[in-house]
Amino acid sequence: MAISREKKEKVVAELKELLAQSSAVVISDYRGLTGQQMAQLRRRLRPMNGKFIVAKNSLIVRSLQEAGHPTLEDMLQGPSALGLFFGDYAQPLREMTEFSREAEALRIKGGLLGDRNRDGDSFGYVVDRDREQARLARAPEH
Fold it and tell me: For residue 43, is it within any domain?
């Protein structure tokens, strides 16, 4: 279903605002996720200052451009959803990564940490690194 130019402009403005406020943006392929799984992911991210949004790729690219971010067009192939994290991104990023392991239909393609472009494997590395640092901080010293 085609959406009007006015509606597209509104979506771009809203996405641009969210992108400007976000500390991390995760682009994922959500093909195969059920509506119930998407709702579950949104519920899990909400208390951590995270959002999960589905939008047309062309509108995402335009929003990224207008917000001054890299467009990430290489990652925006096929159905795409955005994980947007505000403030400290470690916990919502970990939650989304764990969700993608549980619900194999969600595939993290990559995104932005601050202004740095990252591929999907980099996000997994960041989560594993943060988990290891937390474990070491809790370990008793000898």
Answer: yes
